[in-house]
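Chapter review: from sequence to fold.
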Amino acid sequence: MCAILDANVAGEVFAPHRHPVAEAFFRWMKGRGRLVVGGKQWRELRKNAIAKSWMLQGITAGRVRRVERAVVETRVREMARDPKLTLISDDPHVLALAAVGGARLLYSNDLDLQQDFKNQALTGPPRGRVYTSRPMPGGSRPRPLTNAHKRLLRRTDLCGAPDSSPLPARRTPVRQFPSELPERRTAGPGSTMTSPARQNRHHGTCELMKSLDSSPAICRSEGAATRHSGRGHRSSGLLGAGLESPAGALHTLRGTLPMTPAQQ
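The token string follows.
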């Protein structure tokens, strides 16, 4: 189920000591509930530091769905241009968020907004429902938790828009380049394995040496790789000979190529 948290009750929900109605809603948010935030409503919620921190974590974890500001504001302008739509409240941004975000449960103590939220012409089907802790008429304390509150939190049909499903948890993909990919083969005792990066360097070095007509037998050896031992890596063959790179190959070839008369 999807819900919108009005900024006028954020202090109740994120208070250190919550009354029963706010406590039930908070537990619902941490469990199976999903919140929808966006536009001006999201900016108002962020004024509460605890609410802001919780919402940002919820967005990352997939418990909170954030609707883009431009989408909400476009709906607000459409509502303002429609002469058939009449608002009682001064919170068109909340109604627009419900229309584009799919939330059909509102936690608010604003009576005018509650009336507008139940108007399908403003939010769309299904009809919106209201969860509130507003004191009973003639009272001053928050109303007690009732079975009506509990039934609202158990409902599963209060996500109206097609795109109202919560976003999955965001995970930053880790890119691996070919040289960083692990070797798939299992290395046994005494086995010889070569990483793709080392194979490329080995091939490039030998090609350079062949072009200089001084390709040693080491380039034709199967042992030109890194041997893995139980306590670390031990270089042998081409790598052990200092020929891991073309620069190393040239440095080594200085002692193997014949000297020109000028060099003598």
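Two observations follow directly from the output. The first strand starts at residue 2 and ends at 5. Confidence is low (pLDDT under 50) at residues 162-181, 221-246.
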